[in-house]
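Q: What would this complex look like in 3D?
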Amino acid sequence: MAAEKDNSAVLTFLRGLTLLKQGAEARVYRGEFLGKPVIVKERFRKEYRHPTLDEKLTHRRTVQEVRSVLRCRKAGISTPVVYFVDYTSHCVFLEDIVGSVTVRDHVNSAQRSETGRGGLEALAGKIGQILARMHDEDVIHGDLTTSNMLLRGRPESGEPDLVLIDFGLSYASALPEDKGVDLYVLEKAFLSTHPNTEALFDALLKSYTAASKKSSAVIGKLNEVRLRGRKRSMVG
Amino acid sequence: MLPAVSEMHQSQQLDLFPGYSVTQCLFKDVRNAAELRKSAVGGEIQGALINPSMIVVAANKAFHLQKVGKMKTRSLYSEVIFNLSPTNNISESFKKFGIADNDNTVLIVLIHSKEDEYYIDDIRSKIDGEQIPVELISTLSDVPKIKKLYKVTAQEDCVGTLLEAVLCRMAVKDVL
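A: Here is my prediction, written as structure tokens for the whole assembly.
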């Protein structure tokens, strides 16, 4: 084996994969790894940042992402499996949830049909339950949107499995304020992506309140945060 | 002379390192475990493995860390053993996953390039035992023991398989 350090293997491997999307933060690829379908998330260098800062931030985000994934799994929340992390290129190799659809796409298509809409309330309840469990574990997702929730069909039980993804902005916190903000982010994303779903989101919050042991403080903070938002008057 | 039992071993290419593969050979009724431990080819303890892909993932991580010069242990094979452990305690990982003198089921793991395939027969001849198909690892798994070893929670059981729980811990343990 060569004695010099060589960290090009992962980057070379990535060139053979399909690029799914490129965000401001990372590039996401799809491919096969050790016989399994995978998603590789590459947090690339940001040239506009000071290099030391960039390295620290990128490393921290990678670390927080994988830590949160494991914490959620231990708490019984479905997340992709982490297969491998390369801390030199900041790449995370995750399970590709094959045959899944984002909650976003599901809600959009379900809203168009009468029968679809019926099932949405149950889905909202499920989301509320899972978020309650996550917050009870003191995990803040940080980027809750319906695009970051997948529905994976489970043939045995018939009911689809809700999988949370993209924990890049997640962190640990017990503060109701942080949990409230987490829900607020979801509320904003939800209502802007899916028009006329206020009742649905209400059902989500109801389910969250019922499922979480610490919900009253969180909902209290959520209401406070709502009042703080953009174009909101903080008078009286 | 060893019979032609080449179908019993399993090889998986390391996608990140083209040209290299991980080959696993499983042996039962091994009588010379103590000897093997001294030559440290890389044997694992009975009942602690679920299925061959656990080894492949551990081997991939070990090979990668060797390439970037960041191994935690001193050799590639000890690194593979260390990677199987859910904790960052090196000596503990050798105790739990390394070969022990009185083991009679031994898994041999080799990470090699295509040219080094002849190595396999060389190693095989050193084992005083009977080779069996690698897939049989899953029949030897002691599931309750594994759950306890990796501290798999009851809720976790509902969201995925035991293998997934183990693989996730193997991948994430260095930053826990």
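A: To summarize the key features: Residues 51-74 of chain A form the longest helix (24 residues). Residues 70 and 82 of chain A are 8 Å apart (CA to CA).
Q: Very helpful, thank you.
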